[in-house]
């Protein structure tokens, strides 16, 4: 397994949100298309904004914590028909581990809010990874500690058509 981090969030030309994940200490990564509500929740989590009342993700986090649970990690473990599958790894107060089927987008929001690591299985990475170094490096979000302006700049400047070309090129190379 490889640890990944959120490198950015963008909209493609059809206004579908894409999360860019990068393997730690490399320029390799991959994109996962997510729903608009999940993208909004992720953008809010990255910005650190809180609401006066708990949102659904906050309700889940608060419930797990009130029951004495801890979040250990999220794992993106499979891709099938361009759909990514993930699992959330929790531990209860007695040390019992639980693996819960989850959408990657939900895992990402929770991981950003709680700071637990995200991993991708090697096979998924090998199938999906692209070289991110040719993307607009100065516009890429370099971590959750940066301010909201940097994240907005990333979203505004990511060339999604270039990203799609990379995906197509890598897929063509794998089938050749």
Draw up the topology in text.
Elements: E1 2-11, E2 17-23, E3 28-33, H1 36-47, H2 56-66, E4 70-80, E5 83-91, E6 97-102, H3 104-114, E7 118-120, H4 122-128, E8 130-131, H5 148-157, H6 160-175
Parallel strand pairs: 4-7
Antiparallel strand pairs: 1-2, 1-7, 2-3, 3-8, 4-5, 5-6
Helix pairs in contact: 1-3
Shape summary = globular
- Count of the domains: 1
Number of helical runs? 6
In helices, the fraction of residues equals 25-40%
What structural class results from the helix and strand content? alpha+beta
DSSP strand count: 8
Radius of gyration: 16 Å
CATH class: Alpha Beta
Q: End-to-end span in angstroms?
A: 26 Å
> Which series of helices and strands comes N to C?
EEEHHEEEHEHEHH
Low-confidence stretches: 137-148
**Which fold name fills CATH's third level, the topology?**
Bifunctional nuclease domain
Q: Overall mean pLDDT score?
A: 80
Largest sheet: 8 strands, mixed
Strand order of the largest sheet: 6-5-4-7-1-2-3-8
What is the strand content?
Answer: 25-35%
